[in-house]
Design goal:
The structure is a homodimer. By secondary structure, chain A is of the alpha+beta class. The first copy, chain A, has three domains: 1-43 and 279-490, Vanillyl-alcohol Oxidase, Chain A, domain 3 (3-Layer(aba) Sandwich), CATH 3.40.462; 44-154, Uridine Diphospho-n-acetylenolpyruvylglucosamine Reductase, domain 2 (2-Layer Sandwich), CATH 3.30.43; 161-277, Uridine Diphospho-n-acetylenolpyruvylglucosamine Reductase, domain 3. Chain A contains 18 helices and 19 strands. Chain A has helices at 29-37, 59-66, 76-81, 88-95, 112-125, 179-187, 205-210, 218-221, 224-227, 255-258, 292-303, 317-321, 351-367, 375-383, 392-397, 414-430, 464-481, 497-519; strands spanning 71-73, 105-108, 128-132, 150-154, 161-165, 170-174, 191-192, 228-235, 238-242, 267-274, 276-277, 281-289, 311-315, 341-349, 371-374, 400-410, 437-442, 445-446, 449-459. In chain A, the strands form four sheets. In chain A, strands 12, 13, 14, 15, 16, 17, 18 and 19 form an eight-stranded antiparallel sheet that branches. In chain A, strand 18 (445-446) and strand 19 form a beta hairpin. In chain A, 62% of the residues are buried. The interface between A and B is large, with 98 and 98 residues. Chains A, B: Belongs to the FAD-binding oxidoreductase/transferase type 4 family. Chains A, B: FAD binds at residues 131-137, 262-268. Chains A, B: Substrate binds at residue 392. Chains A, B: Keywords: FAD, Flavoprotein, Oxidoreductase. Chains A, B: The active site is at residue 453.
Chain lengths: 532, 532
C-alpha cells in the first residue's frame, strides 16, 4: 500500500524533452478528443536537429581549466546537453534547432577545492560561469548573458551524503546530489528528506536550495528554504560557511540571502538540511468539494490550524474535470462525483501521530463541506505525482501550446488573483484566435496565503514562442497588478527578471546589487540571471 | 482559569530598573538565605544620581529637526530616559551615576514622513540616529558610537493597528506599538499576536522585528521572524516595502535581511505580522522529569513531531531547585517532587485542536519518563511569566551580581554547550573568588536544535562591571568554541559584536557591510551596532 518514494529513480532527462525517455507518456483518445475541441488537429512540425556554434573558449583558458583537475568538455553533444532548461519556450527553441544558447565549455569539478580553482580561472580569463546540477529550470536559469565565453559549471560530480546527525536530524549533502539519490542514501539509515517537487527525478539538493524549491509535502515538511540549516558557498572572494544554529538572533539570516540567489552570489557546494525518520505510515485520501471556493476555504482552515496533514492539494473545477491530478488517466472520466473539485490530503508519520491528525483533519473537512472519496484518488495522485509534466512533450507533438506558471499571494487576494491571471491568459491567447483552457490548483498553503499553479492549453500557432510570450507577459502584468509575487517556486532566472525587479523596487534592488558586487566583484557568476 | 494575556498592561520602565515600578518584587527570606550561602551579605552601594553631559547638538541642527514636525527634546531627564538598555552592565553603570551614553537629543516623529525628514536632517547635519522604541535591549543596542552627535529616534508615537486582514490573519502595526497594546487592539477583533518575550510589558512590534525576538510560545506561534510577512523600512536612500507574499521563490528573502538588522540598515516603520484568533482554551501543565537529560530528550521528541504544544519549557535541576520558573515564590520549596526538572507544557487553541494535541503530547511525555504534575505549576508559571527579571534589581540591591545570557545550537551539541558555558562562567567567577550558581533552561525548541538560557548569581565584587566582563568573555569564547550562535533572541548590539563577526566570518561580513553601505551610505544609522 505505502510504496516508499525511494523506489523512484534518478532520471537523466534528454535535452529538449521532460522526464524519463525510457518511460514516455502517450495521449489517451479522450485527451486527443479534448484537443480537437480546441481546434488542435495538426501535429507540430518535426523537430530540427540542434546545431551549436563553435566554442569561444581560448586555448589558454582551456589549459588553465584543465589544470584545475576538473573534467572539461567542449564537444557539441556535451554542450548541447547543458543548454537551457525545460520551459515550453526552451523546448520550442530546441524543436526549432536553435543552439545559440549552448555554453562554450562544460566543466565538472569533483571537489570543493576544484570549484574554487575554476572560479579563479574564470576570473583570470574573463569567463562567465553558469552553475548546473539538475538542469530542470523552467525560467531561463541556464541562459546567462553571453558577452564573455560561458562555462557550464556541472556540479553533478559533487555528490553524496557527507554527514548524518541522527540526533539533530540534519543531513549534509554535496550540492550535486540528485533528490532520488539523496532519498536512497538516507533510507539506508532510516531517514527521509521528504522533498518532492514535480522535478524530483532530475533535481538536485543544491538546485532546490538556490531556487527555493517547494515540494508537494510542503505543509508537512516545509519548503526547501525552511529545511536548510546551513550552506557552504564558494564565492569569488572566498568560501563562506553559513548557518550556525537552527535559528538565531545574531543579525540578519544570511542563509536567506543565498537561498534564492540562483548562483548569482556564489556556488553552493554543500547543504545541511533537516531530515526526518522514514514514515511508518503513508495515507493519502481524495476529498470532493462542490466548488473551488468551498475547497479553498477548507484549505485555509487547515493551513491556519495547529494540526495539519503532510500533503494538501486542491484542483479547480477545470483541472478536476480533465483529471489532471492523475496524469495516467488524464482526460478520462473522474472516478468520483461529477463536477466540483478534487482535494488530495496525505498523512505521513508514525501510527500515533497520523491517527491523531487524520481524525482531526477528517472532522474539519466534513464540517467544511467535503465528501470523503477514500484512498483510491489519493493513492492514484501519489503514484503519478511526478508524471504531470511528461504530458507536455506529446501535447507539443500533437500541435498544442502547453505551459504552466505559478504565483503566490495572501488568502484575501487569492480569488482576485486567480480570476485576473486566468482572464489575462485567455484574453491574450483569444486575441490571437486561439481559445485556451486554463486550469489551476493550490498545492502549497501557509497560514497567511497560498500558491496558485496554472496549466494552459491552446492550439499552437506558427510562431508559438511569440504566441506564448504575449500570454506570459499578460499573466506577469496581472500578477504584478494584483500585488502578488511573480513566482512561488519556479524562481526568477531570466524570464521573470523584469517583473521581479518591479516587485522588489529600487531600495531592495540596490541591496541585492551591493551583495552581488561584494561577493562577485567581476560579475563572473550567472550574469543577467536574477539581476541585470 | 484562562485569564487573557491582554490584561497585562504596557509598563513604562524606569531608567535603570527593570519592570513595573508600581509593582516591584522583593526577595523572600528563603532567597536571602540562598544568597548568604554564596557569601552575599552586604548590600550594594546606594545608587548615585546620573548626570548626563551637555548636548552636542548645534542650534542649526536643532532648528532643522524641529522643522520636520517631530517633537525634539534636549533636556537631561528625557535624554537620561533614552540611554542604554537593561543589561546588568547597563544597570550597574546607572547605579554608578555614569551618564556618558546619553543621546544628545530625543526626536519623536509621529508619521513615516517625519521619520524620512529626520533621516534627511541627520544626513545634512552629520548626526547619528539610534532608533528607540521598547528600550529593553540587553546587549548594548542603545549605545551607538558617539563620534557625531547622537539622536535617539523615539518611535513610540508611531503606534496603532493600521490594518487587520482577518481572512489572511495579517495585522499591520505601526512599529512603535507596544506588545500589550497590540494585544489589546487585536482582542477587540477577536485576534491575538501571541508573542510573549519576557520583555513583553515594555517591548514593541518594531523592536521585536529588528532583534529577532522569540516569545515564550515560539513552538506554537513561531519566533517573531517567522510571524513577519512584511515590513516598511525608511532608509537614507528611500522607502522600501518588503514582502509581497507569505513565501516566494522570487530571489533572496529580503525580509530576513531587515529582521535582525537592529536599526543599522533602516528604520522599520510598519510591520505586517501573522495573527491568530484568540484561543478559546488555554491549558498549562507542569511535568516532572528525573533529570535534565531525560527532559531534554522529551523536548526533542516533541520538537521533531508533527503534533506540538503551544508552549514548551524545561528548567534544569538548579533552576528547578531554586524554583525560578515561578518567580513569585522563587527560592520557596517546589510544590512537586523534590529534585529533578520541571517542564511547562502549554496548549492554546480551540477545544478540538487542544484536545487532540493534549492527548498525543501527554502520551508521549508519559512514554518518555515524565510525571504529570497537573495544571498548578503550569498556571503558576503562566501568571508569573514576565516577572523573572523583576528579581534582578532587588538582587543587585542585596549585593549580588546577577545576569542572564543565552545561546542556541543543534541538539547533538546541546549537552556539550551547556557544560562548557557553565564551566566557563563558574571558572571565570571562581577565579575571582566568587563562586557562582549557574542555572539553565530550554525555552525555544526546533526540530534540529534548541536554545539555552543561563541565569548566573554570585557575590558582587567592588567592580562588578569588570567582574562580569570576565565571565561574559569566557562564556562568549565557550559558545564560539562549541560552534553555537552567540545569541538566540537577545540580538547582537554592541556587546556581542566581536563574537558575532567571528561567527559569520569575512565573506558574510563583507556582504553585510555592502548592504549597509548601499542603504546607509553615510553611516547615520546605529554606527557600531551590529557592524563596526
Amino acid at each position: 500500500m505505502t510504496q516508499s518514494e525511494t523506489t523512484v529513480e534518478v532520471v537523466d532527462f534528454v535535452p529538449g524533452r521532460w522526464g524519463n525517455p525510457a518511460d514516455p507518456m502517450h495521449l489517451s483518445d479522450s485527451v486527443i478528443g479534448a484537443l480537437t475541441m480546441l481546434g488542435i488537429n495538426e501535429p507540430a512540425p518535426a523537430p530540427v536537429d540542434v546545431v551549436v556554434p563553435a566554442t569561444r573558449l581560448g586555448a589558454d583558458a582551456l589549459a588553465a581549466l584543465e589544470g584545475t583537475g576538473a573534467a572539461v568538455a567542449t564537444d557539441d553533444d556535451t554542450r548541447r546537453s547543458r543548454m537551457r532548461g525545460f520551459s515550453t519556450p526552451d523546448l520550442l527553441k530546441f524543436r526549432e534547432g536553435d543552439g545559440t544558447d549552448a555554453p562554450d565549455a562544460v566543466v565538472a569539478p569533483t571537489t570543493q577545492e576544484q570549484v574554487a580553482a575554476v572560479l579563479a580561472v574564470a576570473d583570470q580569463h574573463d569567463l562567465s560561469l553558469n552553475p548546473f546540477s539538475g538542469g530542470t529550470s523552467v525560467t531561463g536559469g541556464m541562459m546567462p548573458e553571453r558577452e564573455r565565453p560561458v562555462l557550464s559549471l556541472d556540479l553533478r560530480r559533487l555528490t553524496g551524503l557527507i554527514d548524518l546527525d541522527e540526533v539533530s536530524q540534519i543531513a549534509t549533502f554535496a550540492a550535486g546530489t540528485r533528490l532520488p539519490e539523496a532519498e536512497r542514501l538516507l533510507a539506508e539509515h532510516g531517514f527521509e528528506l521528504g522533498h518532492f517537487p514535480q522535478s524530483y527525478e532530475g533535481a538536485t539538493i543544491g538546485g532546490c536550495a538556490v531556487t527555493r524549491s517547494a515540494g508537494q509535502s510542503s505543509i508537512g515538511y516545509g519548503r526547501f528554504d525552511d529545511m536548510v540549516v546551513g550552506l557552504t558557498v564558494a564565492t569569488p572572494v572566498g568560501l563562506a560557511e553559513i548557518g550556525t544554529a537552527p535559528k538565531s538572533a545574531a543579525g540578519p539570516d544570511l542563509r536567506q540571502l543565498i537561498l534564492g540567489s540562483e548562483g548569482a552570489f556564489g556556488v553552493v557546494t554543500t547543504v545541511r538540511v533537516h531530515v526526518h525518520p522514514l514514515p511508518a505510515v503513508r495515507r493519502f485520501y481524495g476529498w470532493h468539494f462542490p466548488d473551488f471556493v468551498a475547497g479553498e476555504a477548507a484549505m485555509r482552515t487547515l493551513a491556519q490550524s495547529a494540526v495539519k496533514p503532510t500533503v494538501l492539494r486542491l484542483s479547480d473545477e477545470a483541472e478536476t474535470g480533465l483529471n489532471l491530478a492523475n496524469p495516467s488517466s488524464a482526460g478520462a472520466a473522474s472516478a468520483g462525483p461529477v463536477g466540483g473539485c478534487l482535494m488530495v490530503v496525505g498523512f505521513e508519520g508514525d501510527e500515533a501521530d497520523v491517527d491523531c491528525r487524520d481524525v482531526y483533519v477528517t472532522a474539519q473537512l466534513e464540517k467544511l463541506g467535503g465528501t470523503a472519496l477514500g484512498t483510491e484518488p489519493g493513492e492514484a495522485w501519489r503514484v503519478g505525482r511526478f508524471r504531470g509534466p511528461y504530458l507536455r512533450d506529446p501535447l507539443l507533438d500533437a500541435g498544442a501550446l502547453v505551459e504552466t506558471l505559478e504565483t503566490v499571494t495572501f488568502w484575501s487576494n487569492l480569488d482576485r488573483l486567480k480570476a485576473d491571471v486566468t482572464a489575462a491568459i485567455t484574453g491574450a491567447l483569444g486575441d490571437q484566435g486561439t481559445p485556451a483552457v486554463v486550469m489551476c490548483h493550490i498545492s502549497h498553503v501557509y497560514p497567511t496565503g497560498a500558491s496558485l499553479y496554472f496549466t494552459v492549453i491552446a492550439k499552437a500557432l506558427e510562431n508559438p514562442l511569440e504566441q506564448w510570450a504575449a500570454a506570459k507577459n499578460a499573466a506577469n502584468a496581472a500578477i504584478r497588478a494584483a500585488g502578488a509575487s511573480i513566482t512561488h517556486h519556479h524562481a526568477v532566472g531570466t524570464d521573470h527578471r523584469g517583473t521581479y525587479l518591479e516587485e522588489i523596487g529600487d531600495v531592495q534592488r540596490s541591496a541585492l546589487r551591493a551583495v552581488k558586487d561584494a561577493l562577485d566583484p567581476n560579475g563572473l557568476l550567472n550574469p543577467g540571471i536574477l539581476l541585470p
